[in-house]
Each structure stands twice: as C-alpha cells, then as structure tokens.
Specification:
Layout: H1 12-18, E1 32-35, E2 53-56, H2 58-63, H3 68-71, H4 73-79, H5 84-100, H6 111-125, H7 158-181, H8 194-220, H9 227-259
Antiparallel strand pairs: 1-2
Helix pairs in contact: 5-6, 8-9
Length: 260
C-alpha cells in the first residue's frame, strides 16, 4: 500500500486536537498543525490528508530560523531526527485512545498498514454526513413582480417637487432677513480721499525735483575719471531716495492722524 492510495480526509476535530499536543521539534505546547507533503498523498495545489499532520510551534512552522517552510520538509526532518511514519502512528494512536478509548493491536503489520488501520478506525467512528437528495430542498417562493410596473424616481414625485419649492421660498425669506439686518456698507475708495490726492501730488513734485537733480549731476559728470567718485554719487542718490520715501511716509501718516 502507498500513500497515494489514501483519501484526502478532512477531520477538523483531529486537527483541533493535534494543536493541543506538544511541538515535535521543541516539546513546547504547539500552536499549529503542519501537513506533511513529502512522500504523502499531497501535491501541487492539493493538501494532504489531515491525518498526515504534525504539531508545531509557529517559530518552527513559518517564522523561525529552523521553520519547516524555510528549510524544507526533508531538511527539517533530518535536522530534528524525526520519522514521519512514527509520528503519524503516535498521534493517531493517541487520538483514538483519548477520544474513543480504543487501543488497536498491530501484529506483523508495516508502518503504512498501521496508519491505514488507524485511519479506518477513526473514520468509522465519525458521524455520517447528511446527504441531501437532488431536488429535495424546498425552493423559496419568489415574489411575483409585475413586468410592466415602472417605479418613478423620487425627484419626479409631486411631494418632492412641493417640498423643494417650499424650501426655496424659506431660503429666500431667510436671505432677505439677513440682508435687512446687516445692510451693505460701501467702502470709500482712496481715489475719492482728498488726503490721498494731496499726498500723491506731493510725491509727484518730489519725484520731479529728484529727477532734475540727478540729471544735472549726470551732465556735470559725463565721463567720470575716477570710478570711486562715480560709485559715491550713486550711493548718495540711493540715500536721498531713501530719505525722500521716509519723509513721504511721515507726511502721509500725519495726514491720516489729522483726518481722524
């Protein structure tokens, strides 16, 4: 008999019990059950029978350095000196004894035959699955829907239109009340302010005066022989412009104080 001759049994009770056993690698309480695919009836995309499982901690299952999913099953079994057949027989025998108080005798049987006998005994003790006859299930009665029934949209109903019109009227009344309570105040433009016009005219005169002075100096020094002298004149022009702007700011500030 070969492992490929076994069925892919699914036994949630056995899997739950197996997680309560001790880890085969560390001896600590197990946290999960690992399906052994190596040499069993599992394959690519096909999980082996639940009876071909071993209990492991998470560190030895997926997370740790010596996890079976990192090392591979062959290296894992060799690392911890484990024999899969002995493990299967041990846990199947223990489960049968604890769950059903049954101890089997294996006179002259090989490992595969022992495993087959244990699985057969466990499967015979499990409750039979309920098989429903085809067509036996009651069909739910579907509500009859009139084919030509057209359900109007909410926006097309008369009630919706009346409510919308009423809301529009109330919003308009509320806006009128708010506008009556807080009349709009027109802000005066600076162009209409006589102080602004006076300051603007004063600035224009000062600009003209400054331009004349600069023009006269530029005519008197058409070709400066000394570059330092030219830079000095340029710096003086900057200082005068800065003083003029400061004076204009003080005058405008004084005009505003007089207005108050």
């Amino acid at each position: 008999m070969k492992y490929s001759d076994f069925s892919n049994h699914r036994n949630s009770s056995y899997m739950q019990w197996l997680r309560t056993q001790k880890c085969v690698a560390s001896g600590a309480p197990a946290e999960c059950a690992h399906h052994i695919r190596l040499g069993t009836n599992g394959g690519k995309g096909l999980k082996p029978s639940d009876y071909f499982c071993i209990p492991l901690e998470n560190d030895y299952h997926t997370h740790g350095l010596y996890a079976v999913h990192r090392m591979g099953e062959q290296s894992f079994l060799e690392k911890f000196k484990l024999n899969r057949e002995e493990l299967f027989i041990h846990f199947l025998t223990l489960y049968l004894k604890q769950s059903y108080e049954i101890v089997l005798e294996f006179d002259g049987l090989g490992d595969i035959e022992k495993i087959a006998k244990l699985i057969e005994e466990i499967e015979s003790r499990r409750p039979a699955k309920k098989v429903t006859k085809p067509g036996g299930a009651k069909k739910s009665k579907k509500s009859k829907v009139q084919p030509n029934l057209v359900v109007p949209k909410a926006s097309e109903t008369e009630y919706y239109q009346k409510a919308k019109e009423l809301k529009r009227q109330r919003d308009k009344e509320l806006r009128d009340q708010l506008s009556a309570q807080k009349p709009k105040q027109k802000t005066a433009s600076l162009k209409d302010n006589p102080f602004y016009q006076k300051a603007k005219e004063l600035k224009r005169e000062q600009d003209q005066k400054l331009r004349k002075e600069l023009k006269q100096k530029s005519q008197s020094v058409t070709a400066p022989k000394n570059i330092d002298h030219y830079e000095k004149l340029k710096e003086e022009q900057k200082i005068k412009a800065r003083e003029y702007r400061r004076a204009q700011y003080q005058k405008l500030k004084q005009l505003k104080s007089e207005q108050k």
